[in-house]
Amino acid sequence: MLTTNHPIIGQIEVMSDIEKFQLVDMILTQLDSPDSEVDRWWAKEAKSRWKAYKEGKLKTVSYDEVMEKYRI
To answer: How far apart are CA 5 and CA 55, in angstroms?
Structure first.
């Protein structure tokens, strides 16, 4: 786990805003690359959730309830 005393934090603190944006872009690009194992896991999870929903075993929340939670 990355903590505030990790050496990389000190390096980030001295970077310019442009360098920070470039670093974030590089990280997001790497995270966005396809991973077939993750895709298989999500497909299995989605099927499991859909089955539970169809069988009435999954508690659902209405759109209005969700939106009310986040209204300011």
So the answer is: 49
* pTM of model > 0.70: no
Buried b (16+ CB within 10 A) or exposed e, 27-49: eeeeeeeeeeeeeeeeeeeeeee
- 15 and 40, same structural domain? no
Q: How confident is the model at residue 72 (pLDDT cuts 50, 70, 90)?
A: low
Tell me the CA distances in angstroms from 53 to 2, 27, 29, 56, 58, one per residue in order: 37, 35, 34, 5, 5
Domain co-membership, 62 together with 40: yes
